[in-house]
Design goal:
The complex is a heterodimer of chains A (174) and B (223). Chain A is built from five helices and four strands. With 174 residues, chain A is an alpha+beta fold. Chain A folds into two domains: 117 residues, no CATH class; 36 residues, no CATH class. In chain A, a hairpin with an 8-residue loop joins strand 3 and strand 4. The model of chain A has no long low-confidence stretch (mean pLDDT 85). Chain B has six helices and eight strands; from the N terminus they run ααβββββαβαβαβα. The relative contact order of chain B is 0.13. The model of chain B has no long low-confidence stretch (mean pLDDT 89). Chain B has a single domain, classed as Trna Endonuclease, Chain: A, domain 1 (3-Layer(aba) Sandwich). With 223 residues, chain B is of the alpha/beta class. In chain B, helix 5 links the parallel strand 7 and strand 8. In chain B, 40% of the residues lie in helices and 25% in strands. Classes of the chains: A alpha+beta (174), B alpha/beta (223). At the A-B interface, helix 1, helix 2, helix 3, helix 4 and strand 3 of A face helix 1, helix 2, strand 1 and strand 2 of B.
Chain lengths: 174, 223
Amino acid sequence: MATDAEASELFKLLSENLAQHSRPEEKAAGFPTGIDAEIQAGRQVKVKLTVPADQRTDDALAGPRVTQSTTRAEFVQRRDLTGKEKLDILLDGIGLARVAPPRMASKILETIGAISPRSKLENVSFADDLSSDPRLSFGPQEVATAVEAVGELQRLLNVARSELGASIEPMSEA
Amino acid sequence: MVTPAQLYNAISNTLAGLPANLTSASAGADLYEAYIWSLVLEAAHNEGAAIEFRDRRGNVPATFWFRTSPSNIFSTAHDYCHAVIAFPDCPPLEAHVGIYVAGRSQVQHECDVAVLYQSEAETCRTSNALPRSGKVLLTVECKYYLDSNIGINLGRSFLGLIHDIYNGDRYFVGTRESQSVSKLLGKHNKEFELGLSPLEPRLEGRLRGSFEKTFRDFRSSWT
């Protein structure tokens, strides 16, 4: 079982790499800064704390007085994430940013082909009303290449998760 | 046992070699909506529907055009496409990505994924009108987030939205878990799936199952 320090080491190396080498359009989309912000925010946990509880007592003879006691109450407390938790969040982020998009494109094409085999679809394009050119286009060959390329990354992320991360449930592989 | 340095070297080398297309930045949110749309179609297919693809003029498309930004169902900017879902002995439906519908307040709302009656869709395409929410069988609000910023405000907005487009099944779906949104929507008995992506096939199957129930109920109401 790896130590938290080892998980922290990998987290630090990967974070620095992503900060330096993420693509400009990825930075604009909040990757990896959004993940950094999530890690900085820490985790909220419920805790029971002992707090002073002053009570006013009305005594008919002595008049009102305050009696001091304590009580246990539930609070929401922020705590820092462990190295393993930070690493898990980062690995999830990398998976969603780099592995998921080709897998989603693949799913779209697979579904279209499977449920309507007579369709003549050769290509998929994404566009908006303001531009005549598509923002994104892809076909089966391009998607197959991309899925193959992210397969190795997915395998490595699973190894990192199982060797160093807090959770042991790996991402599913295509 | 692999060392952190070894893992880092392997991961960073692989990251550097990935193709630039089909990443979160290029199209993550757009792909996510179309991906959810494909799960809706799978669910309809599993429930016995015949499915075909059409562009706005009713032609069989060679290229399927999805919307990246919401627009009107009658938009002519591109040959935007949709799926036609036909259950036996039931009125045909259409499944769209990124269209506006009119709520009961007459305010227009964006539906990331919408399944509506084909008769309503055809009327709106020829009359430049917004589909009425009462004719929309199923909608999905899709949130592609890389961090867990699917905050409580998005959950509250969704509750407001479904109050205005109140008929049918309304789903809230996102890529990352959010305790606050889960609590809020769970408390209000709303349909949601958080943490959903192709990397989580168990959640994918559960959401598809929920869509199947929607189509099962639709079929039952007509047969």
